[in-house]
């Protein structure tokens, strides 16, 4: 019967948390262990099992307050994970795509006529976007470690989520711009090579996946009171 | 002691508790309470997010191991954590020296 007190508390806590499943599970396991240890200590002091568990839960803290602190840490952890993905995946994805383009389509000069300056500007901006977004994510990770103890976790999580969303939005905009520009210039170039069309689709799947991660970062932050 | 007064010092207290040993969460809580003679009155649940924060800062590392037949997450200081603890100790000694010089004077200025 006493176990119900701890299980109710852990279940209530778990229902208020959002983040990586593994990290939530680990936090709840640690909580359950801590409450079990505290219960044992109170049993040794002569309390009944139910009283001991009730005391352990009271000492642990109000579930709302504790959930808030746990959630802030989970949000930072989720933001960190997303920023790592952005820092690694974006440059790799861009390099793979560019290498594929050179291999399967060839350099711009091989098109007979060089594309107009505005198109090259968009292409260049798109090339830079991935690098900049990845660099910003990397910088945010380094800064986040430096600020870990100096800055409130909720603020840090908000900053991480904002940077992640900004980075994905920039990459999304860059890719969308180059597709629209290419379609405007010569729509047939979009379907010129089947492997490159597949590569583009994979790129979009990765960007959407990164976008979902970034959106979940924000949702982890917004449930922190 | 009031929880609010402790919150700002929780990181330093945790680093000091882990100095030279590897402990799991509840053992850290017990050591904190024993070290303070039971005066530390902080919701024990706040210790775990603080440990995560210290881990994020690279001051502690955690590892899952079996202790007393139960799988537990144990924590220990890193070299950076040891340096941070030394810095915290120095800052605390300077702080208490300065404050004690003024507050601990038993009103000697009023007598002069």
From TrEMBL, chain A:
The chain crosses the membrane at residues 74-97, 117-143, 155-181, 193-212. InterPro entries: Perm_prefix_1. Keywords: Membrane, Transmembrane, Transmembrane helix. It comes from the Bacteria. This is Uncharacterized protein. It comes from Lentzea waywayandensis. The lineage of its organism: Bacteria, Bacillati, Actinomycetota, Actinomycetes, Pseudonocardiales.
UniProtKB/TrEMBL annotation, chain B:
Keywords: DNA-binding. InterPro entries: Metal_resp_DNA-bind_regulator (IPR052509), Tscrpt_reg_PadR_N (IPR005149), WH-like_DNA-bd_sf (IPR036388), WH_DNA-bd_sf (IPR036390). GO terms for molecular function: DNA binding. Residues 14-86 form the Transcription regulator PadR N-terminal domain. It holds the Pfam family PadR. Transmembrane segments: none annotated. It comes from the Bacteria. It comes from Lentzea waywayandensis. PANTHER family: PADR-FAMILY TRANSCRIPTIONAL REGULATOR, TRANSCRIPTIONAL REGULATOR RV3488. This is DNA-binding transcriptional regulator, PadR family.
């Amino acid at each position: 019967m006493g176990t119900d007190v701890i299980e109710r508390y852990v279940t209530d806590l778990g229902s208020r948390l959002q983040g990586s499943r593994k990290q939530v599970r680990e936090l709840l396991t640690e909580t359950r262990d801590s409450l079990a240890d505290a219960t044992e200590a109170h049993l040794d002091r002569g309390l009944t099992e139910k009283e001991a568990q009730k005391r352990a839960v009271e000492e642990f803290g109000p579930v709302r307050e504790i959930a808030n602190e746990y959630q802030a840490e989970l949000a930072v952890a989720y933001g960190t994970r997303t920023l790592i993905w952005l820092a690694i995946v974006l440059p790799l994805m861009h390099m793979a795509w560019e290498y594929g383009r050179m291999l399967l389509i060839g350099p711009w000069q091989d098109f007979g006529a060089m594309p107009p300056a505005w198109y090259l500007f968009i292409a260049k901006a798109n090339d830079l976007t991935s690098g900049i977004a990845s660099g910003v994510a990397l910088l945010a990770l380094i800064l986040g470690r430096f600020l870990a103890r100096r800055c409130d976790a909720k603020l840090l999580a908000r900053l991480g989520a904002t940077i992640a969303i900004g980075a994905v939005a920039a990459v999304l905009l860059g890719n969308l711009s180059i597709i629209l520009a290419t379609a405007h210039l010569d729509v047939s170039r979009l379907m010129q090579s089947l492997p490159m069309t597949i590569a583009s689709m994979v790129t979009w799947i990765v960007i959407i996946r990164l976008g979902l991660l970034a959106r979940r970062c924000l949702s982890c932050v917004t449930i922190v009171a | 002691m009031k929880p609010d007064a402790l919150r700002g010092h929780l990181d330093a207290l945790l680093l000091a508790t882990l100095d030279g040993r590897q402990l799991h969460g509840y053992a850290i809580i017990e050591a904190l309470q024993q070290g303070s003679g039971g005066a530390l009155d902080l919701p024990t649940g706040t210790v775990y997010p603080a440990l995560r924060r210290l881990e994020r800062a690279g001051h502690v590392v955690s590892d899952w191991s079996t202790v007393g037949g139960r799988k537990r997450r144990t924590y220990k200081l890193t070299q950076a954590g040891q340096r941070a603890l030394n810095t915290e100790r120095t800052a605390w000694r300077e702080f208490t020296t300065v404050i004690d010089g003024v507050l601990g004077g038993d009103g000697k200025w009023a007598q002069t």
